[in-house]
Specification:
The complex is a heterodimer of chains A (about 375) and B (about 325). Chain A has 13 helices and 13 strands. Chain A is α/β, with parallel strands linked by helices and about 375 residues long. Chain A has a domain of about 140 residues: 3-Layer(aba) Sandwich (D-Maltodextrin-Binding Protein, domain 2), CATH 3.40.190. In chain A, the strands form 3 sheets. In chain A, strands 1, 2, 3, 4, 6, 7, 8, 9 and 13 form a 9-stranded mixed beta sheet that branches. A two-stranded parallel ribbon of chain A has the order 5-10. In chain A, strands 11-12 form a two-stranded antiparallel sheet. The termini of chain A are far apart. By secondary structure, chain B is mainly α. Chain B has a domain of about 190 residues: MetI-like fold, CATH 1.10.3720.10. In chain B, strand 1 and strand 2 form a beta hairpin. The longest helix of chain B has about 40 residues. Classes of the chains: A alpha/beta (about 375), B mainly alpha (about 325).
Chain lengths: ~375, ~325
């Protein structure tokens, strides 16, 4: 081979390499930009034939999509349901609340999971509740609270057990006003506890998340003005951001003198210490399934009739109520789905809302719906037609 | 005609009795067409992707109330949206550049070792092991980076930022280990195989005559490499580095797991010990929450900048190459 030929080869290789590099980047971006693929349009595969496992079981396929905060809960419920009714296939695609609502409104999925109720004010020229109504053949869509996800304030401070915080102190820690663990504000809430003089390392969710939104809603509502930023899915406080719940939990576990807010299940799985919250009721409240449930019971109904959207009372002084919670809803058509699908939705949600199913959720880090809310949910599911 | 002559010469030189089969031009045309088609398809694809990004990004860019190129805010979800990419651009460039700075010298060393120093029975297995690095999924690199490597690098980080913190690039940054420094080291390891493989190929092709000539003139081994192999492989090394840079700019999952994001209101810190987000990691981290066209558009616009950045980097590399080739011609 002559050297000239080789030179050419190198040139070709380089061109190819550059093209591949550029394309690789481009394709990656393109795939990130496009909408998540839905579970596929309804095929009407369902039929209401009686099955061997009993007359209560329909058969068919149910597609749902939405909030990742309730992913583990709904997967648990699906497994339990399918043990009873093996002829039903339920797919839940945890792509996020926004995506779920979008797919529901586009008629791509049968119900959506969302960590906030359908919005009634316009966003980007679309009113979610109206779009949902159109999707349900001009019947209102209902927000049915189903999964209660408590948010734990988790910390890693050697030798400090049962740290007590209140909303104001938490707000000041998370906005960077309180910088050290032995600050007088923290010491006042924790008499007799030896707090280190180290700096507080705050971790927050770097991705947009409903957990951040709910936590900042709590801080803003309950801190008496200490938290000044608007609640949002994007973090506006101080600290260093880690990716998703697993990231912040790992951050706190690996970093001494750190603190974060994280879904309860992650705090438990990583054996992180969880702060008790002083709500002003007298005794600081520990996070348990029951205490989180009490806060749901204390919430006010914000919708009409069977639209069970809740207005959480973050400032509740109800004794034993743990106020930092996130409620995810299943968003369903009150009417207007085809009868076979309607039956499937009702059958599955009834099973999901049953007290056995709800109490089994506590093992995986969710709080069961309190009985008084659960009966309302049950009634709403029965009213779907 | 030259082509006919060449063909005739080849035909004359073929061993007697070898039958080339029918000698029509049909196969030529078919193959030429296929090759041309593939080339055009690639270009069309790039243009299409660019156009798609632009199409989705423009409405968001119109609505944007902040300076897209110079603002440090990132609030695409509020009304009206405010977002800018300067932080993302800096982190992307810094982490990729740092990774390249670490990886290229090592890769060149490994490639020289494999082609000119190692005995053949060592070179084979070592090549295999280096290539194996490329087969490790990036999520594994990410988890290993933050759980294993980061704590081990922490003393070095605090030493550097403690003693040389006067340099802006070494200024102390965030409290935890998720720094650009750690991410850059991991990224360097990730791009090492591709840069090594490429430079190795080029070094192996250095003309034997040149090498023997250098040795015959009394050059030592290092002088021989410096005088013949390295100049010959220069353009290959630049291509290899660019290929590595391309991978580094687009790396997503490992970076996303390792890097911590500094607090939103913190002042700009150019340091290696600050955290941050790259274009790719930010897009991937938030992909689940693209719930409005404006928000999606904002992220797509950021992606578009990465797209352009890749092109610019490659264009610069080509210019450098052309320049140096002209000088040596």
């Amino acid at each position: 081979m002559d050297p000239k030929g080789k030179d050419k080869n190198v040139n070709h290789n380089r061109f190819a390499a550059i093209a591949v590099a550029a394309l690789g980047g481009a394709l990656m971006l393109a795939s990130c930009g496009s909408d998540p693929t839905p579970g596929g349009p309804d095929k009407g595969t369902s039929s209401a034939e009686p099955t061997k496992s009993g007359a209560a079981c329909p058969s068919g396929t149910l597609n749902a999509e939405g909030s990742s905060a309730q992913k583990n809960a709904i997967e648990e419920a699906i497994t339990a349901y399918q043990e009873q009714c093996p002829d039903v296939t339920i797919n839940y695609n945890p792509t996020g609340s926004g995506a779920g609502i979008k797919q529901f409104n586009a008629g791509q999925v049968d119900f959506a999971g969302s960590d906030s109720a359908l919005k009634t004010e316009p966003k980007d020229g679309v009113i979610e509740a109206d779009a949902a109504k159109t999707r349900c053949a001009n019947n209102p869509a209902w927000d049915i609270p189903m999964v209660v996800g408590p948010i734990a304030v988790s910390y890693n401070v050697a030798g400090v057990d049962g740290l007590v915080l209140n909303a104001q102190v938490a707000a000041n820690i998370f906005n960077g006003t309180i910088k050290t663990w032995n600050a007088p504000e923290i010491a006042k809430l924790n008499p007799g506890v030896k707090l280190p003089s180290s700096k507080i390392a705050v971790f927050y969710r770097s991705d947009e998340s409903g957990t951040t939104e709910n936590f900042t809603k709590y801080l803003q509502a309950a801190s008496g003005g200490a938290w000044k930023k608007e609640p949002a899915k994007t973090w506006t406080g101080t600290g260093s951001g880690k990716e998703k719940s697993a990231g912040v939990a790992e951050g706190v576990k690996a970093t001494a003198n750190s603190i974060t807010y994280v879904e309860w299940s992650y705090a438990r799985d990583n054996n992180l210490a969880i702060a008790k919250i002083d709500t002003g009721s007298g005794t600081p409240v520990e996070l348990t399934g029951e205490s989180a449930g009490k806060a749901v019971a204390a919430a006010k109904a914000d919708g009409t009739g069977n639209d069970l959207r809740l207005k959480l009372d973050y400032t509740t002084k109800e004794p034993g109520a743990y106020p930092i919670i996130l409620v995810t809803y299943e968003i369903v058509c009150s009417k207007g789905l085809d009868p076979a699908k309607t039956e499937l939705v009702k059958s599955f949600l009834t099973s999901f809302a049953s007290s056995e199913s709800q109490s089994s959720l506590e093992q995986i880090g969710y709080a069961p719906l309190p009985e008084e809310v659960r009966t309302k949910v049950d009634a709403a599911i029965k009213a779907i037609s | 005609m030259a082509v006919t002559n060449e063909r005739q010469q080849l035909l004359d030189r073929r061993p007697q009795g070898l039958d080339l089969g029918p000698t029509g031009r049909g196969g030529d045309r078919l193959f030429g067409g296929l090759a041309k088609g593939s080339g055009i398809a690639v270009i069309a694809l790039v243009v299409f992707v660019g156009g798609f990004l632009l199409w989705l990004a423009v409405p968001a860019l119109r609505a944007n109330q902040a300076s897209f190129l110079f603002s440090r805010e990132w609030m695409p979800g509020i009304q009206p949206p405010r977002f800018g990419i300067v932080d993302l651009l800096w982190t992307t460039v810094l982490v990729s550049g740092f990774a390249l700075l670490l990886a290229v010298p090592v890769a060149v060393g490994v490639a020289l070792f494999l082609t000119h120093y190692a005995p053949r029975r060592v070179a084979g297995p070592v090549t295999y092991v280096v290539d194996l690095l490329a087969a490790v999924p990036s999520i594994i690199f990410g988890i290993w980076g933050i759980k294993e490597l980061a704590p081990k690098l922490a003393p070095l980080s605090s030493f550097l930022s403690g003693n040389l913190g006067g340099f802006p690039l070494l200024r102390p940054g965030i409290a935890d280990n998720g720094t650009v420094f750690v991410a850059g080291v991991v990224l360097a390891i990730m791009i090492l195989p591709i840069v090594t493989a490429f430079t190795r190929e080029v070094f192996a092709q250095a003309p034997r005559e040149h090498k023997e000539a250098a040795l015959a003139l009394g050059a030592t081994k290092w002088e021989m490499i410096r005088l013949t192999v390295l100049p010959y492989g220069r353009s290959g090394m630049v291509s290899a580095a660019m290929l590595g840079l391309g991978r580094a700019l687009g790396e997503t999952i490992a970076i996303m797991i390792i890097l911590s994001k500094p607090s939103p209101d913190s002042p700009f810190n150019p340091s290696l010990f600050a955290g941050g987000e790259t274009f790719a990691s930010k897009i991937a981290n938030n992909a689940a929450e693209f719930d409005s066209p404006t928000k999606t558009g904002a992220y797509i616009a950021a992606g578009l900048v990465l797209f352009v950045l890749t092109f610019v980097v490659n264009a610069i590399a080509r210019l450098i190459l052309q320049h140096s080739e002209r000088k040596h011609a």
